[in-house]
Hints:
The structure is a homodimer. By secondary structure, chain A is an all-alpha fold. Chain A contains 17 helices and two strands.
Amino acid sequence: MSTNSILAPIQGELRKVEELLRESVRVDYAPLSSVFETLIGSGGKRLRPALAILSSKFHPANEDNVFTLAIATELVHAATLIHDDLIDKSSVRRGSPTISSRWSGTATVLAGDFLLARAADIAASIENFRVMKIFARTLMVICEGEIRQDFSGKHWPPNREEYYRHIESKTASLFTSSTECGAILSNCSEEEIAAMRSFGHNLGMAFQIVDDILDFTADERELGKPVGSDLRQGTFTLPVFYYIEQDPHAANISEFLSEDMDRLVNAIRTSPAIEASKTEARRFVKTAQDAIAIFPENEYKRVLINLSNYVVDRTL
Amino acid sequence: MSTNSILAPIQGELRKVEELLRESVRVDYAPLSSVFETLIGSGGKRLRPALAILSSKFHPANEDNVFTLAIATELVHAATLIHDDLIDKSSVRRGSPTISSRWSGTATVLAGDFLLARAADIAASIENFRVMKIFARTLMVICEGEIRQDFSGKHWPPNREEYYRHIESKTASLFTSSTECGAILSNCSEEEIAAMRSFGHNLGMAFQIVDDILDFTADERELGKPVGSDLRQGTFTLPVFYYIEQDPHAANISEFLSEDMDRLVNAIRTSPAIEASKTEARRFVKTAQDAIAIFPENEYKRVLINLSNYVVDRTL
């Protein structure tokens, strides 16, 4: 199942999200507007806006606020992608040159900052203190995670525990705030809010683990970057940790890293570490699905379940 | 009069600001905390927190909220200084090496972003929608101004009109939000809020103009960077525009810039353009002072007046 067919029940809402996103980055200075439109218009899956919308569907909600949340969340996501590319020095994302490869470092930074500021500006119009606090806190968690990575020297994270913490701040935190705030804006009970929060968190963890698996297993042309590029840049991900644990020769990290990188990436790619990582992602998805068991069966809950299955089954 | 003696009536509050600022950047990861403490602890004048506090003194206010505003404002200021140094590639600020000269570009960016996110996080606890909106909008105005500058090629701004717009977004916007939000948090009337807003705006404009004058006239050792460094980097400021207008030979910009830079800086420094710029700054200060005429004469109003006089009379 493609994301398009999974998300068909909210396709009207997602079209509106596209429109509002484009509006949200319109600025006085026309050349900049078009730059930003390109930035946010490059056709991501809009998973986070979809989660914000879906999680607000179980009780009557103020639609405008939900759209605002959806837009603000996607802007934060776009900003972090830009900064990530700068940190990773990636020159390609989804097959297109990254902003950081085309612009100066400064311009890249500022473009990301502008999107963050715009997100905060938009979020402020929701007029819900709880949502605004969660939103601001999420920004901080993301930034703190990025800084921690940047300050931690060449190899990061050092162990599996830190890996989980890292993907929590890098990815799961924004998934969490999407679903938690969607629940809050639709006047869910505290129990329901906690359930949606857990769904978002666990889905986000699974999503990032699968991303990290795909960095090893996906088709290089579809990936748009060399296979194993995380490891090549010194970022350790779940498959690496499983591989190290399973291979006695790999236990000595410095010896491990002194191996030929192509050979190492290939060894991990074809090792049981990939399946072990997938099992871990499935475990997170299962926890996510269990969390929303308290919600009634309906069209939107089905979409959430389908979406969570898609997250582990996707090939890109 | 030194800022210390001018600000004596709120010296207790400013001590608390120092304490809260340090607390505000404490993070889980200890090495980072100390980095941030150095960042915000480098002893600026704390003008923006002072303005937030002073502008809230005319009616009873929730003190906690005012302190929160003061801290958030200073964090935004600290973040913009870091990003400015990166954009300008300055290696020294106030005689100390800048963050951007000691860290990688990425770390610098992220440190600035973290402070912005922390500021948003702190501001969210004020629980006043109007203040939060003004605050978020100010972040955007600052970012948009920085981007506009970065995208505008080597020489910027192109004319006096754009110069005013530039210093409004770069400096006056944060002064404005300090005083406007201080007034809002102390339940001022709409007329009083508008007056404080105008005071902050005009004071901020004067402050930046004087900064731009000092870039030509201050002692190089006190300045901690070469005289005329704005112009050397392609940034045109008010003294430059006045000089160009007064000197018929300077009217042709490309010819003007082809001159020997040391000679040019010296010519501007000793020209009537400096006094003309100062007159302009004084005009802004006068407008600021007139704006708060509606407030009763008291200790705090005297501080605001003294502070605005200090802004034009200072030598650094």
